[in-house]
Amino acid sequence: MAVTYKFRSxxxxxxxxASVGTNSDKSVSGFGLRSKAADLxxxxxxxxxxxxxxxxxxELIGAGFELPDTDTHxxxxxxxxxxxxxxxxxxxxxxxxxxxxxxxxxxxxxxxLNREPFRNRKIIRKSFNLRKRKNLEGEKMTKTEVEEExxxxxxxxxxxxxxxxxxxxxxxxxxxxxxxxxxxxxxKLTQVLxxxxxxxxxxxxxxxxxxxxxxxxxxxxxHKQKKLYKDDKWKGMYEMQGMSNVPFLVQVNIEHTRSIExxxxxxxxxxxxxxxxxxxxxxxGPMSTFRNLGxxxxxxxxxxxxx
Length: 307
Description:
Layout: E1 3-7, E2 16-20, E3 26-29, E4 32-35, H1 36-50, H2 58-62, E5 77-82, H3 88-94, E6 100-104, E7 123-127, H4 130-136, H5 143-161, E8 168-172, H6 174-186, H7 198-208, E9 218-230, E10 233-241, H8 246-249, E11 252-258, E12 265-272, E13 282-284, H9 290-297
Parallel strand pairs: 5-9, 5-11, 6-7, 6-8, 8-9
Antiparallel strand pairs: 1-2, 3-4, 9-10, 11-12, 12-13
Helix pairs in contact: 5-6
């Protein structure tokens, strides 16, 4: 018996259809061309899960619905933030799985990779700091230069995500990435009406979520912090400086700390999507590495999963 899938593809004016059980080798699914056998198997699995007949899920399969992925993927997409000299970059480059693609948008990393423990790590780097260099020289980037640099950053991030060689992507800093995005779309960083942020918010969110296209890629988006004012008064608190939606788009949010007593570095877990029991957890010294955090987020993982 032939199983027919009818659906309306994006931009199409008429419903398209494809059949399983005919002489055709391929059928059209919600995600493109795939084999009839794969379509039929997906339909049967979905029907079994919902407790219905295959014919009743035809439209759902045609629209691209599928059973959720139940596998556990030992990786983390992290947003980190801290004030200066709290070990943000060191944590991201010294304790994450290699090889590492380092998107350097800061000027504070000069000479860093020539020192231990970075010298012998598998790190590749691409720098995007034209705006900061020009600011130091008392110049400003032209509109064309800003747009070209934003396009270059976007293309670079996409190239990293699709390359299975890279195990960790580090963006230092996502604060600077957000400023570049706003300059490219809005032409300025201040006095912008809220309703003008729609397009830049959409594109930046898409960039941040690129990592979800690869379930074996770790990502660290490093952020600066700024003073948190309430009623125009600063009461000693700080907050992440960057796009406000980023904490909702990543899997783990952390803040870097430094001991007043001995100067040792640490992290505080703000929240964790995969393991909410870690919310508020503070890790100090050797326990605060990316690898150790990963094993705490995924207790079933092994040390080898984070090497």
